[in-house]
Amino acid sequence: MNGSKRSSLFLSGFLLSIGGAILFSTKAIWVKLAFRNTGVDALTLLSLRMLLALPFYLVVAWFSGKKESAIPLSKKDWFWIITLGVLGYYISSLFDFIGLQYISAGLERLILFLYPTFAVLLNTWVFKSTISKIQLFALAITYTGIGIAYYAELGTIQHNEHFYFGSFMVFLCAVTYSFYLVGTGKMVVKVGATRYTAYAMLAATAGVFIHFITQAQWEKVNMSSQLWWYSIALAIIATVIPSFLMSSGMKKIGSNNASIITSIGPVSTIIQAAIFLNEPILMEQIVGTFLVIIGVVLIGWQTTRPIN
User: Fold this and answer.
1) What single-letter DSSP state applies at residue 236?
2) Does residue 196 contact residue 77 with C-beta atoms inside 8 Å?
3) 304 pLDDT exceeds 60?
4) Which long-range contacts (CB under 8 A, 24 or more apart) does 152-160 make?
5) Handedness of CA 33, 194, 55, 50 (dihedral sign)
6) Three-state DSSP class for 94?
């Protein structure tokens, strides 16, 4: 591949990834608006999100599975696709939605953005990868940034007794999502990014629906037009479109480069939260966000370096 084609490929992958990251970052905004203006609970909102996204993933799963180049999947492959899908987009998302009921959108995105550090630690533990000095330094910077931002947020929780619970839920979301990412890195190579994304989302949707049905939530739902619009935005703008943008970008420039580009996510969320939710932008929050982004970029850059 010559230089111009390589540059064009990277540029297209960069634009796809950054577009996906920004759209993904709107998720917390739509969720907070839905909670504030409709009184919907976390499980119901998550179920509506998956219900409205379902047709898109069904179509993609059908066409990607029909391609002649599609490799037949073994029972083991199906097991991991279902397990990772349920973990990454059902359990992880439920933790996130619950947490967003009690903490700000900006802090949620910062805590959630710890997942690359957990992925590094998970790779070290499971696959016996070594952590370099730069990665250790990056981890220290990242957690320092989270600590600073979290400390600033403590000054705003006088009337929120569930702040620590909400923070812990988002923390669990980051942990479970890191398991999903590590597993995804292995499965995408075999299954294909688009096909894997569709199958994993379908598995997650099944898990969410089973949970919703067993909880008998439908009778309690007040299905206003406002709730439908928030759910549609959450499903299409913050889920379907960015999931395929990110998978396409990842295919062009690699998962590590794509993960570095998603560092724009916390900044995007903080700015949107200030505009649409009237959340204050604190100086400590800016400093903490800056440190987190530096740490994540260092981790991604070190991961992409060739091993001599």
Assistant:
1) I
2) no
3) no
4) 152/282, 152/283, 152/284, 152/285, 152/288, 153/103, 153/104, 153/107, 153/282, 153/285, 156/104, 156/280, 160/102
5) negative
6) helix
pLDDT number for residue 112: 84
pTM: predicted TM-score of the whole model, two decimal places = 0.83
Question: Is the confidence at residue 210, as pLDDT, over 90?
Answer: yes
What's the CA gap between 95 and 99, in Å, rounded?
A: 6
Do 92 and 173 form a contact (C-beta atoms < 8 A)? yes
pLDDT > 90? residue 172 = yes
| CB atoms inside a 10 Å sphere around CB 66 | 8
Q: How far apart are CA 80 and CA 86, in angstroms?
A: 10
Q: What is the mean pLDDT of the chain?
A: 83
Amino acid at 306: P
User: For tokens 């010559």, what's the residue?
Assistant: 2
What whole-number percentage of the chain has pLDDT above 90? Answer: 32
Catalogue the long-range contacts made by 254-257 (C-beta closer than 8 Å, 24 or more residues apart).
254/304, 255/184, 255/185, 255/188, 256/300, 256/303, 256/304, 257/13, 257/17, 257/300, 257/304
Angle 53-56-61 from CA coordinates, rounded to 5°: 120
The label of the residue with tokens 């987009």 reads: 89
pLDDT at position 307, please? Answer: 35
